[in-house]
Amino acid sequence: MFIEQRIYTAHPGKLPMWLKAYGEIGGPASSRTLTPLMGMFTVEFGQINRVLFIRGFDDIDAREEGLKRRDADPDWQRFLEATRPHAPLMMQEAKLMKTVDFSPIQKVGQPFERKIEGTQMVVDHRTYDFEPGRINAWIDAYRSLGKPVQDRLLGQLLFFCVTECGPINQAVFAWAYSSLGDRDRRRAAMMADPGWAEFQKATGGLGALKAQNTMILKPVPWSPIR
Length: 226
Prior knowledge:
Layout lengths: L1 E9 L4 H19 L3 E9 L4 E8 L3 H12 L1 H10 L5 E11 L22 E9 L4 H19 L2 E10 L4 E8 L2 H13 L1 H11 L4 E11 L7
Antiparallel strand pairs: 1-3, 1-4, 2-3, 2-8, 4-6, 5-7, 5-8, 6-7
């Protein structure tokens, strides 16, 4: 399955207006003409004034036809007319990714099943950059050693992808928690677990990781993942 991840950076003070118009007009038009929105989030920690959203495609060729339908849709044009005069967006980034075999999301339209406690959600979104040719060995070790520990001790894995277009040799994945405190407590338990030490030992000699980036996100009210 392909996942398109977009990150839009707004000028300070202009993101709420853009989000309101997207939630009421642009988002429904996109989900109707492309594929259903999977998740949409604002950045709480990291580079702020940003929104991140993901949309899946089982057939990537169908994306082009969907974009044509969206661009011709009267509601999409109404959304553009409502937002463009305000010039809210400073920057846009798009990545095309593929889900790995253990990613919980594997199909367009797959309903989200919340497994964390409570009604609130924070999302730990991570991007790991790898040396060329070394990502597969790290993912194999994570699949067999690291993920079982995290499944037992962390929150809820939302998706796990590798980049196909955009910056390649990246793994992009996200875990959901009921609060930042919940995240901290769970990650502390993970770091103290002998199984996690075994995973770190197995991957430490690979020389695989170049950089790691983390953002803390919060879902918008209309996000299917929330």
